[in-house]
Write a structure and sequence with these properties.
The complex is a heterodimer of chains A (196) and B (111). In chain A, 41% of the residues lie in helices and 12% in strands. With 196 residues, chain A is α+β, with helices and mostly antiparallel strands. In chain A, strands 2-5-3 form a 3-stranded mixed beta sheet, covered by helices on one side. In chain A, α1 crosses α5. The two termini of chain A are 20 Å apart. With 111 residues, chain B is α+β, with helices and mostly antiparallel strands. In chain B, α1 packs across α2, α1 crosses α3 and α1 packs antiparallel against α4. The longest helix of chain B has 25 residues. The two termini of chain B are 30 Å apart. Classes of the chains: A alpha+beta (196), B alpha+beta (111). Chains A and B meet through α3 and α5 of A and α2 and α3 of B.
Amino acid sequence: MTSPTQADHSVTISEFVRQVEESCRDLPEPQRRHLIADLESHLHERDGQQDLLADLGNPADYARELRAALDLPQPPERDSAKRRPVWLVPLIAAVAALVVVGAALAIKAATDSGQPSSEAASVIPTSAAAMLAQVPDLVGTSQSLATGEAQAVGLPVKVSKVRSSAPAGQVVVQSPVPFATVATGTTILLQVSTGP
Amino acid sequence: MDTSQLLKGVLPTTALAVIAAGDTYGYQVLHRLRSAGLETVGDASVYGTLQRLYDTGLLSSYMAPSDAGPSRRYYAISAQGHAALKQGQERWAQFEAVVSGLLEPQQGVES
């Protein structure tokens, strides 16, 4: 691996804005759009002298502070203390799969016994539950831990290095955002701090 | 004491005061607040506060070119904003006097 070039040292302003917007995706779209409407031009006013992440912190925290300033509710499930344990995710998927199989069998039994079933059309194929994964919350953890957690739920990672006030090796930005539901095999982009 | 909670209450009034002194843009408001001593004020707080003051009609805004890069959004205080600033100044003076009196009882109490 080569040493990072100047451009790798920080996230770009548009990437930062995009991540802030993602952290606000629980808000109605017009409100969210309004919230970030001028953010990009506002951040350009900084004259680009200082590292974006070192100066402003990570985008999720920025979004949190912005919402507080506007008296908007904070997003659900953001506290790491409330994080759903990673091992629970495959368990939930397994239970969901069992429920679907059970429902399919029950409907099959009902259909076989000659009773019409209006539910038959809504049955999800068993494979669908196994093809989805919930993105773990990886910001703040180490690169190796984050990689392990993501791979445990079937999500490969791609790492890029950024300079940040966070300790070296710590994940500062992730995409997609935590708790998003994605197809298994979706690559999670991690930005890992090279240290202050 | 958590300064951020104190700051939240006075941020709109202090931002209005900065802009009342002359039209300016967001990052400059942040810079003035910090250099005046509110060092912990965050960029997002100022950006959000300006947006809110604009939404409620206390500020107007216009775009102006900059030497350094893209055009900047300048803010100017409106008549409504001047009224809100005056009210904010009065409230702060009152509040400050009450809290100071409570925090320094020896000097304030006569037997």
